[in-house]
Amino acid sequence: MRPSLWLLLPAVCLYAGDLSLTLAGQPASYWAGDYTTVTEYNPVWSPLLSRHPLLFVAGAITVLAVFATIILKWRHPLAAWLAVGVALGSAIGGSSWFARHGTAGWLLAVLYLSAATYLSRLCWRRAIAAT
After folding, report:
1. Could you give the CA distance from residue 114 to residue 74 in angstroms, rounded to a whole number?
2. Mean pLDDT of residues grouped by 10 in the chain (131 residues)?
3. Which residues touch 82 (CB under 8 Å, ≥6 apart)?
4. C-beta of residue 9 within 8 angstroms of C-beta of residue 127
5. 3-class SS of residue 75
6. φ, ψ dihedrals at 67, nearest 5°
7. Are 14 and 91 in contact (CB under 8 A)?
8. DSSP state, 76?
9. What separation in angstroms does the CA of 89 have from each of 30, 41, 51, 52, 94?
10. Under a CB-based contact definition with an 8 Å cutoff, are residues 76 and 58 in contact?
11. Which positions ≥6 away from 24 have C-beta within 8 Å?
12. Using the 8-state DSSP alphabet, how is residue 26 labeled?
């Protein structure tokens, strides 16, 4: 597998996790059609979610496609740092959905971040070995 694919794998997985947890974290009233009850603190994604969940998903997939294209095509060390940034931001964003649920949620957040660290380290080591 190409090194850039190994770099991209944690970013894609963690981004998808954050996206899924964001959708799962919406209240019942949101899913009943009242999109104004959106629960999202990111000022980029909240307006999309407050319009419709499919608009949010379409926007998120578009952004991920742009990041993936840059990471795969750009032959510069900053491409690797972009992959790290997307993975890190997505891991933190995903874990924040757990942390809001008290002590058990904090424990799940730590476990989620630990799994994200393990996945990222494994993939990035393979990226280095493949170069």
Report:
1. 29
2. 83 97 97 96 94 97 95 86 94 95 96 96 86 71
3. 67, 70, 71
4. no
5. coil
6. -60, -45
7. yes
8. S
9. 25, 14, 24, 23, 8
10. no
11. 97
12. S
Query: For residue 1, what pLDDT is reported?
Result: 66
Q: Distance between CA 10 and CA 122 in Å, rounded?
A: 9
DSSP letter (8 states) at residue 1: -
The rounded distance, in Å, linking the Cα atoms of 101 and 131 is 42
Please state, in angstroms and rounded to a whole number, the distance separating the CA atoms of residues 79 and 89.
15
Q: Cβ neighbours of residue 96 under 8 Å, at least 6 residues apart? A: 109
- Whole-angstrom distance between the N-terminal and C-terminal Cα of the chain? 10
* Confidence (pLDDT) at 129: 80
- Rounded to whole angstroms, the Cα distance separating 119 from 14 reads 9
